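Thread: quick sanity check before group meeting

JM: Hey all, I'm pulling together slides for Thursday and realized we never actually wrote out the predicted structure for the chain we discussed last week. Dropping the sequence here so it's in one place. If anyone has concerns about the input, flag it before I start.
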Amino acid sequence: MNLGMQLAAYAASPATSLGRLHAEPHPAYRSEYQRDRDRIIHCAAFRRLEYKTQVFVNHEGDLFRTRLTHSVEVAQIARSIARALNLDEDLTEAIALAHDLGHTPFGHSGQDELNACMRDYGGFEHNLQSLRVVDLLEEKYAAFPGLNLTFETREGILKHCSLKHAATLGEIGRRFLEKRQPGLEAQIANLADEIAYNNHDVDDGLRSGLITIEELLETQLFAEQYAEVEKMYPHLAPRLRVHEIVRRMINRLVVDLIETSRGLLQASGVASIDEVRAAGRPLIAYSDEVKQHSQELKQFLRKQLYAHYRVRRMTLKAGRIVEALFNAFMQDARLLPPQYQDKLREQGGDAALQARIIADYIAGMTDRYAIREHQRLFDPAELT
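JM (edit): ok, ran it. Output follows.
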């Protein structure tokens, strides 16, 4: 909640929240969305993000981003945008902090491999897994499973969803079936995620030496900020120059997003969150020019960084680890830790359920835990 600031009529509000899966007394000194944020920060899945890959595997260097630092950076950007638009900062922050809770070890390569392993059992997608984490898998409260977050936070976590899966999710999946929009706070968190990972992947890519400034000058967004920095600070040290360029790139995107969204909101005439959800398009958006520049940068990173041979080598190894772990546990569930064997016994033992419980276990691993578990299972020198 923006203290001392009147929220816009179309902002989400704890007073009109669609509530929680399990009814609870209202918090005494926090809003409902503050409670959501605090529960996310204190959960085990959030702590594990410290050792999960963003682009570079955790052991490749202490200065590269992880899923945890990325989530904090997304939250900072998202909260700033929400404040400027008179929206609920706490809800926006909660969504931003929770958006990657279901991510696998080894980044998108881990997700892709686990999805391939699960193709006969309903597939795997990290947004759905994030919702599963907060609804079911976290074990912290006596009165209910999961974190029992508000509808609005859960709505924001579920950014993407197939119609097949949406049909199984009840109220939270309805918007995909009816082609409705999430609240504005969720829309902000989605684009703040994109702003953070694109620009910070530029920083990490340059630090690693996998991309160069000369290559990045082919992109309009980088080239514009590079020219400004060179003009103002011609003798800047190389690392400081990169930091200055990246922060200006972020600012360019954020300012454009705020100004364009203000215009869209005013033109739309929406006066409530229900009208936001019924709008035919997202109302948080870039201008056409900046959207094009952002997409150009994203395409550059996909081609020059994510497809770099060194990244692809790590992707190959990461995929093999995930596949080997999954197949070993499917072939013999007795290899699973006792608490997961207990879940299988309690819930029944068909193949689909076994696969989903194994996916929960693997998705919850950190990079280094997955590597270590692979060694324990397949390295003859490891006897435990």
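AS: nice. The domain at 14-307 is CATH 1.10.3210.10 (Hypothetical protein af1432). The chain has two domains: 14-307, 311-378.
JM: adding both to the slides.
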